[in-house]
Amino acid sequence: MNDFTDGAVAAAPAAAPPKDTRKADFEANKLSKRLHHQVGLAISDFDMIEAGDKVMVCLSGGKDSYTMLDILLSLRRRAPIHFDIVAVNLDQKQPGFPAHVLPEYLAKLDIPFHIENQDTYGIVKKLVPEGQTMCSLCSRLRRGILYRVAGELGATKIALGHHRDDMVVTMLINMFFGGRLKGMPPKLVSDDGKNVVIRPLAYVAETEIEKWARHRRFPIIPCTLCGSQDNLQRVQVKKMLRDWERQHPGRSDNMLRAMAHVVPSHLMDRKLFPFTTVQATGVPDADGDVAFDEEPCAPPAAASPLRWQAGPSRDTQE
Ligand code: SF4
């Protein structure tokens, strides 16, 4: 397992000096450390990047993918292994898409990049009846194109900018509307079986990404150019989560932590646990069930956002 979390992490250079220098510098430095730590930890916990990998970083022009690229480039400079990064943007020919923004930004970074021009917008507009959401077809087309591009570029990993909140919201949507306990994994094999997809921002809260994007002054491209209506379920659940988080901070982190601590014997999936063969053993078990007691809730102090133990137990203090 490659440890991307070793060593002190200096703040990445700010694009411009903040106004309130000392306080802003202090806050930015803390945020930088948290982001580097969380991304490094996710990479290590799930062995996302190995020596010799060529990571295709998918860049949409939104805050998430800018942040992902920014932190990955910074981590690469101090990583214990060598890996390559190639940034890829799919220009879907949405009306008003400022096609010059990303090439200019990437040229300044002096890293390899590729802009793939494909008029998926035109295809989707033609095929989806007016008033219906276009996202499902649009995403499917985009996915297929990005997989193909990954093969053409010789990429061994495809990095997507989904973050902690995306993962928690996806799990809730699947529970509420799909009747499945299924989330958005930090690492998976693509549906064509040819690519490994990674989500290095898996541990990062969206609010942190928003702050980082403001601090770094990324040239954000609006995500509403296609004119598609937002997925209503996702909007509802996201709002619910944000309200909930405001009232009870730490809930989102706890939900993400829950996804890494599954207890099959305490769910109801007969494929995961042999309920039909359960027998009393007569042997006391300190970790056994306490069927008549309330499950104790973790006190807030124990819910430190970075106390992850997703893989083989790692002590992950900041
Ligand atoms: S919001 Fe627009 S660009 Fe994004 S998936 Fe939906 S249709 Fe495609």
Describe this structure in words.
This protein is of the alpha/beta class and 318 residues long. Helices cover 40% and strands 8% of the residues. It is built from nine helices and six strands. It has helices spanning 21-45, 63-78, 101-109, 120-127, 135-153, 164-178, 206-216, 232-247, 251-259; strands at residues 54-58, 84-91, 113-117, 157-159, 187-189, 196-198. The protein has a six-stranded mixed β-sheet with strand order 3-2-1-4-6-5, with helices on both faces. α2 (63-78) links the parallel β1 (54-58) and β2. α1 crosses α7 (206-216). It binds iron/sulfur cluster. Iron/sulfur cluster (SF4) binds at residues 134-135, 138-139, 226, 228. Iron/sulfur cluster (SF4) is lined by residues 134-135, 138-139, 226, 228.
**Uncertain parts:** 300-318
Structural class: alpha/beta
Fraction of residues in helix: 40-55%
Overall mean pLDDT: 87
**What is the N-to-C order of secondary-structure elements (H for helix, E for strand)?**
HEHEHEHHEHEEHHH
Strand content: 5-15%
Q: Care to count the β-strands?
A: 6
